[in-house]
Amino acid sequence: MTGLSHRDAKHRDAKGRPLVAVTGIGMVTSLGQGQAENWAALTAGRSGIHAIARFPTDGLRTRIAGTVDFLDTDPLVAPLLSERFARVAAEEAVGQAGIGSAGDFPGALFIAVPPVEMEWPQRRALAEAAGGEGAVTYAGLQRAAASRAFDDWHDLFIFGTVADRIAERFGTRGSPISLSTACSSGATAIQLGVEAIRRGEMQAALCIGTDGSVNPESLIRFSLLSALSTQNDPPEGASKPFSKNRDGFVMGEGAAALVLEDAQAAAARGATILGYVLGCGEKGDGFHRTRSSPDGAPVIAAIRASLADAGLGPEGIDTVNAHGTSTPENDKMEAFGLAAVFGEAVARIPVTSNKSMIGHTLTAAGAIEAAVSLLTIRHGRIPPTINYALPDPAIPLDVVATARDMPVARVLSNAFGFGGQNTCLVLGAEPA
User: Fold this and answer.
1) Crossing angle between the packed helical segments 365-379 and 185-198, to the nearest 10 degrees
2) Is 310 exposed, middle or buried (0-12, 13-18, 19+ CB in 10 A)?
3) CATH of the domain at 23
4) Helices (H), strands (E): how many in the chain?
5) CA-to-CA distance for 26 and 227, rounded, in angstroms?
6) Residues in domain Ketosynthase family 3 (KS3) (predicted)?
């Protein structure tokens, strides 16, 4: 760091890169709107998973989800729900950061959104609007869009619309970046913001993960993959990460937003720093569209890469916010990966999964769990993994079954997705 002043060096990491501070956090999940509601519910071990009420589930094997029912969900179109959740989370994060007032955010937008497809109810409505069950014509699409008070049918379904609308609302700089890397997407959005600030391209970034995909088609597709829990009664007991009797994940929805800033710029404007993103690690593989590589190599590599990027060894991590989906294969693979990295010490590192309470929020999961990790650091309390009543003897982890109070300086937050998309983040209270 030759030539840097002491003040500059203070705001750089061990590799000489700008430290990336978090100055704003926003959340919405099935547990509530905002940090306060979510944190209170999470640490109390309350579940947001319940019977689905927004559409009929007769005849379906899975009839539960962590839906956000306290916000308007009409019409039931994934892009519009994703936009609504993203806006709510971003408003809280930007407001807390005290930056970008009056729709003038001084940085770029990186937003993880679900892959957009027309869902079956909308396909049927559009076909009917076109005059029959046959081909859906452009004119029919336009009529259907107009009947729902949208300017153009592209506003309903085209990939990138959510980012464009959020960018317009908050006045972010440059072209907004939309991404979809399966269940690691939310963490990847944060990673892109971190990398842009480290490169000196900007001093701030608005990073969001959002997903409003709980609809009939998505539920049926995941069910056909045998990925979902069928333990519908009671709903709050279905998601049980790392338990021997786990049988699949429960769909959830929501969003989280982080305002990232160059730490020196944040300090200069007097911002309150809530924590730091110290490291990011990403590793992909092409083993299978849904299954993890059986040797666990990509998961292990992503964890190790995040630690190396943070300049830490395994001993520098106080707790793990696990991907922990509650599927038989994922939980076993994650435990295998953690054991490979942490060795015998893995049995002494507290591990928790927020998905036990909010379900798997898919594209939003990595961002929501990063936000929860930062709150864990700030409050010195690890939220529990509920429903952990029957430990799996094949998974030798210290799973946090009830909220645990302890000093937490650094959290490893894992996000592993279909198709071998793996992203890990290291969040910290102080620079490494």
Assistant:
1) 70
2) buried
3) 3.40.47.10
4) 14, 16
5) 29
6) 17-429
**Helix residue spans in 204-246 (DSSP H):** 216-224
Residue 130 counted as domain residue: no
Domain that holds residue 66: 6-116+158-428
In the DSSP assignment, the letter for residue 360 is B
The number of distinct structural domains making up the chain is: 1
Is residue 382 one of the residues assigned to a domain?
yes
C-alpha 363: how far from chain center: 6
Look at the chain and count its residues. Answer: 432
Is residue 135 in a domain?
no
pLDDT tens figures, 281-294: 999 877 666 667 77
- Which segments of 172-296 does DSSP mark as H helices, in order? 185-198, 216-224, 263-268
Instruction: Confirm if 225 and 215 have CB atoms less than 8 A apart.
Output: no
Q: Which residues are catalytic?
A: 183, 323, 360
Of the candidates 381, 385, 377, the one whose C-alpha atom is nearest the C-alpha of residue 354 is 385
β-pair partners for 382: 404
In a domain, 140, yes or no: no
pTM of the prediction? 0.91
Closest CA to 176 of 160, 156, 198: 160
